[in-house]
Design a protein that fits this description.
This protein is an alpha+beta fold. It has one domain. It is about 25% helix and about 30% strand. The chain has 2 helices and 7 strands; from the N terminus they run ααβββββββ. Strands 1, 2, 3, 4, 5, 6 and 7 form a 7-stranded mixed beta sheet that branches. It is globular.
Length: about 120
């Protein structure tokens, strides 16, 4: 899923996207990555959810929803997903047993930074 924000107009007019605009877009993508990671951890409280690794920075698709590709590791197995601010899709994740306590989840963002989410 690759999109060029502002790239069409920049390509037609011959202008380039400034470094400040690229930095601003990168920060917006990282903020959205964190937002969708938090949403996944909250909505999928599986104690076997080990990590979320973003493999793309993310972009706004044709439907107007921001989304990024990610690898979601559950119980030692990797699942491909597209995590979006409105909709997410990908490989089906394993069901969650009842009465379980979720653990910490390692999140690695597309710029290589990482954090643990509760």
């Amino acid at each position: 899923m690759t999109a060029i924000i502002g790239g069409i107009s920049a390509g037609v007019s011959g202008c380039s996207v400034s470094g400040a605009d690229k930095e601003e877009q990168m920060q917006a993508n990282l903020a959205n990555q964190r937002k969708v990671a938090v949403k996944l951890v909250e909505n999928y409280p599986n104690p076997e959810l080990e990590s979320i690794t973003f493999t793309s920075a993310g972009s706004v698709g044709g439907a107007g929803d921001w989304a990024a590709r990610a690898v979601i590791s559950v119980g030692g197995r990797d699942y491909n997903g597209i995590l979006g601010t409105s909709l997410s899709s990908g490989d089906g994740l394993p069901t969650i047993a009842e009465d379980v306590t979720p653990g910490l989840v390692a999140v690695t963002y597309s710029d290589g930074t990482s954090e643990m989410l509760p």
